[in-house]
Amino acid sequence: MSDNDRKSRREFLASVFAGIGVLASYSLLAGEGLMFLLPGSGKAKTRKIFAGQIDQFEPGAVRTFYDISGNEILLRRSAEGFQAFDSTCPHLGCKVRWQKEKNRFHCPCHNGVFNPDGIAISGPPGDAGQKLTSIPVEVDEKSGVIYLEVRDAKA
Description:
4-stranded antiparallel β-sheet
């Protein structure tokens, strides 16, 4: 092999590796640029908020809490465990209220009624087959603590 062949092979390999480096750099720059332009495109971040101790809730009781953004959450204890719902009616966005004596959630705007599991059973939400939005609940049986998993407030 002549020196010119070795030199041209070396120059070729140097060009290939330089090209790979430039391509990787531009790819990283393009990815960072997209993240800058579309900051909310990632998964919504959540956090847990303290809702109380298990023994503070009687079966059938519903308590109101607020998430980081001030949205109302209704936490209900049933014989099976705990359920939490966003208090916003899926029909027109009115606030639903728990009616203990009737064992139901009620929306006063159009007389929408939801069963204790948040499923609409009458009124416009029932006709549309809607339900209240569930909020994840975590119960730590060992410590007896209840947490609600809520979305972080938008910056």
